[in-house]
Amino acid sequence: MASHIVGYPRMGPKRELKFALESFWDKKSSAEDLQKVAAGLRSSIWKQMADAGIKYIPSNTFSYYDQVLDTTAMLGAVPPRYGWNGGEIGFDTYFSMARGNASVPAMEMTKWFDTNYHFIVPELGPDVRFSYASHKAVDEYKEAKALGVNTVPVLVGPVSYLLLSKPAKGVEKTFSLLSLLPKILPIYKEVISELKAAGASWIQFDEPTLVLDLDSHQLQAFTAAYADLESTLSGLNVLIETYFADLTSGAYKTLIELKGVTAYGLDLVRGTKTIDLIKTNFPKGKFLFAGVVDGRNIWANDLASSLGTLQALEAIVGKDNLVVSTSCSLLHTAVDLVNETKLDDEIKSWLAFAAQKVVEVNALAKALAGQKDEAFFTSNATAQASRKSSPRVTNEAVQKAAAALKGSDHRRATNVSARLDAQQKKLNLPVLPTTTIGSFPQTLELRRVRREFKANKISEDDYVKAIKEEIKKVVDLQEELDIDVLVHGEPERNDMVEYFGEQLSGFAFTVNGWVQSYGSRCVKPPIIYGDVSRPKPMTVFWSSTAQSMTSRPMKGMLTGPVTILNWSFVRNDQPRFETCYQIALAIKDEVEDLEKAGINVIQIDEAALREGLPLRKSEHAFYLKWAVHSFRITNCGVKDTTQIHTHMCYSNFNDIIHSIIDMDADVITIENSRSDEKLLSVFREGVKYGAGIGPGVYDIHSPRIPSTEEIADRINKMLAVLETNILWVNPDCGLKTRKYAEVKPALNNMVAAAKLLRAQLASAK
């Protein structure tokens, strides 16, 4: 029985690629140095999978930034502003598209389906001249082959690539991206031909958009694309891989009827209903790559249950045609549990990271072939039983409090317009008030202080003194820049979710459980293993300390319950909404303690609310109901004069704008500049927003410093669709990934732009 892995984490077990990328970007190392690190990581991944007994090992799943950008490079679809003149695309052009440069902004970045991974959105139009401009897929196949590993090259499928793209600036929004299919398929044919010539026997096309709500025209595009590719694919085994949800009956029918396709990869963890479609109709002689090992969470597989599923499928598709696989790429999980030396032994026994999932896949394949490792299965069953019965998982008081939430919608008693009036009397802010989103640059010195405190190398007194000094520096800088509502810069926090999880019960933490978010940015999601509560205040000391340093309003900074949920590895033994309600109650306690401590502006970030939206429209209403309710729970008890902010970033918000309004925050700051001010279109279309709103005026994920004029132009576009008295001026997101040399001039220009517009508005009266 064969085994397959959809994809594997790229960063390395200790973030080796992250550090190599950042060293290269900072001009501290060469392109050759970066390529050497990358080659070493690829080699170790392929060898690891081969040693584990995996038959179908992927190549071309490694990326220096993201796989969609790699496809843009392969197709030569470089926007003109980057000055690319043809030939093989090098690092300069590639990273300029991803990060921007001194003269031009980066391409838009958005969430990859409903994950916390991001991709660079292709900008396409009728005039794009596609050309075969990156041979990465073929080069990596040959590289693996030279090491003695015959891999399955993986390409983002042509239809999904187009469906994930957007019309370039200046192109009509109604432009049909799928009309470009005849223009990109010739390049796919060149790649396929080169892979065949290099000796490839299998090829994998990732077509995850098949799990979305697609119309007949979109489904027909898949049929047309693979019919066109059929003759080129002749002689190859072709796997179409889908993931993250069930297939509709229409999408399933389209998939199994595609020309020239040998095998279908299906997510049977998040797509359990797809099994019914397989039972009803599976084409004879085709392969089913059954994704029974979860690629998006860190819980050990219930091997006995998965084996039962596989045996049932084997009876349908045939013994020789069933391949055991992961549900999706393992990119979305941590790398290797072996590196976790500080995790509690009991909790550790419940977990499996990417390396362990590879072993699980192979163990299931061997068991299905009659070579079951009884000891491995017995150990797994023991761990499953331990998790179900462990007293540390359940807290009856928490469950009772969460159950009591039913029956109320937890809205603040006064409407937002009246609250804003009360808040303005207290805060006395100017028109177009300026603020930032929360974090300030995390310097090497600051990271050293936190690291040494965690390692008990400095005392708590020394740590508190150092953090206070950093807060004072950030407060003084904001006052010098004349920002209106200040933040303390979050110097005590390495990560906005990890920081809170460390102080809440029911969470566990890793040392090296890093997961790529985008580019070199990695996050270390907490593990929610049990019921959640707040033993003591988490941020009150630092917020109160910061407020004591200034007479200006100081924001209390919290992460919201939905974001904590969506950016954690969440327990899978109860519905997600129940866990979210528990977190909401814990954050509510913190909000009320901040208010008691004299903090008049409290920001509860819900950066990840949109990314948790199910991929199917039929499931949207239920998710949005409990997600928005969870946010309202956190602040329903505060006074009218306490201003509640929230923040959202890097998602498409237009389709959930009414749910955002229903959150009933006093002020929302929201990503806007990198997505070509897409957000503003919803207000042009007549949506009325009565609360305060701060669409971001510049992109913080690029080192580029916007001019005062550029920011003023952005604010003017906002004033064209939003009332002056509700508009705030702020960056897109937090500043932790930037350097002070970039932050100071950018914020200076932002404040100058706000003052310029205030003066113009005053003179126009």
From TrEMBL:
<comment type="similarity">
    <text>Belongs to the vitamin-B12 independent methionine synthase family.</text>
</comment>
<feature type="domain" description="Cobalamin-independent methionine synthase MetE C-terminal/archaeal">
    <location>
        <begin position="432"/>
        <end position="755"/>
    </location>
</feature>
<dbReference type="InterPro" id="IPR038071">
    <property type="entry name" value="UROD/MetE-like_sf"/>
</dbReference>
<feature type="binding site">
    <location>
        <begin position="437"/>
        <end position="439"/>
    </location>
    <ligand>
        <name>L-methionine</name>
    </ligand>
</feature>
<keyword id="KW-0862">Zinc</keyword>
<feature type="binding site">
    <location>
        <position position="662"/>
    </location>
    <ligand>
        <name>Zn(2+) 2</name>
    </ligand>
</feature>
<keyword id="KW-0808">Transferase</keyword>
<keyword id="KW-0489">Methyltransferase</keyword>
<feature type="binding site">
    <location>
        <position position="18"/>
    </location>
    <ligand>
        <name>5-methyltetrahydropteroyltri-L-glutamate</name>
    </ligand>
</feature>
<dbReference type="GO" id="GO:0008270">
    <property type="term" value="F:zinc ion binding"/>
</dbReference>
<feature type="binding site">
    <location>
        <position position="658"/>
    </location>
    <ligand>
        <name>Zn(2+) 2</name>
    </ligand>
</feature>
<dbReference type="InterPro" id="IPR013215">
    <property type="entry name" value="Cbl-indep_Met_Synth_N"/>
</dbReference>
<keyword id="KW-0486">Methionine biosynthesis</keyword>
<feature type="binding site">
    <location>
        <position position="605"/>
    </location>
    <ligand>
        <name>L-methionine</name>
    </ligand>
</feature>
<feature type="binding site">
    <location>
        <position position="567"/>
    </location>
    <ligand>
        <name>5-methyltetrahydropteroyltri-L-glutamate</name>
    </ligand>
</feature>
<dbReference type="Pfam" id="PF01717">
    <property type="entry name" value="Meth_synt_2"/>
</dbReference>
<protein>
    <recommendedName>
        <fullName>5-methyltetrahydropteroyltriglutamate--homocysteine S-methyltransferase</fullName>
        <ecNumber>2.1.1.14</ecNumber>
    </recommendedName>
</protein>
<keyword id="KW-0479">Metal-binding</keyword>
<comment type="pathway">
    <text>Amino-acid biosynthesis; L-methionine biosynthesis via de novo pathway; L-methionine from L-homocysteine (MetE route): step 1/1.</text>
</comment>
<feature type="binding site">
    <location>
        <position position="116"/>
    </location>
    <ligand>
        <name>5-methyltetrahydropteroyltri-L-glutamate</name>
    </ligand>
</feature>
<dbReference type="InterPro" id="IPR006276">
    <property type="entry name" value="Cobalamin-indep_Met_synthase"/>
</dbReference>
<dbReference type="InterPro" id="IPR002629">
    <property type="entry name" value="Met_Synth_C/arc"/>
</dbReference>
<dbReference type="Pfam" id="PF08267">
    <property type="entry name" value="Meth_synt_1"/>
</dbReference>
<dbReference type="GO" id="GO:0008705">
    <property type="term" value="F:methionine synthase activity"/>
</dbReference>
<keyword id="KW-0028">Amino-acid biosynthesis</keyword>
<feature type="binding site">
    <location>
        <position position="733"/>
    </location>
    <ligand>
        <name>Zn(2+) 1</name>
    </ligand>
</feature>
<feature type="domain" description="Cobalamin-independent methionine synthase MetE N-terminal">
    <location>
        <begin position="3"/>
        <end position="316"/>
    </location>
</feature>
<feature type="binding site">
    <location>
        <position position="649"/>
    </location>
    <ligand>
        <name>Zn(2+) 1</name>
    </ligand>
</feature>
<feature type="binding site">
    <location>
        <position position="490"/>
    </location>
    <ligand>
        <name>L-methionine</name>
    </ligand>
</feature>
<feature type="binding site">
    <location>
        <position position="647"/>
    </location>
    <ligand>
        <name>Zn(2+) 1</name>
    </ligand>
</feature>
<dbReference type="GO" id="GO:0003871">
    <property type="term" value="F:5-methyltetrahydropteroyltriglutamate-homocysteine S-methyltransferase activity"/>
</dbReference>
<dbReference type="GO" id="GO:0032259">
    <property type="term" value="P:methylation"/>
</dbReference>
<feature type="binding site">
    <location>
        <position position="671"/>
    </location>
    <ligand>
        <name>Zn(2+) 1</name>
    </ligand>
</feature>
<feature type="binding site">
    <location>
        <begin position="521"/>
        <end position="522"/>
    </location>
    <ligand>
        <name>5-methyltetrahydropteroyltri-L-glutamate</name>
    </ligand>
</feature>
<feature type="active site" description="Proton donor">
    <location>
        <position position="701"/>
    </location>
</feature>
<comment type="function">
    <text>Catalyzes the transfer of a methyl group from 5-methyltetrahydrofolate to homocysteine resulting in methionine formation.</text>
</comment>
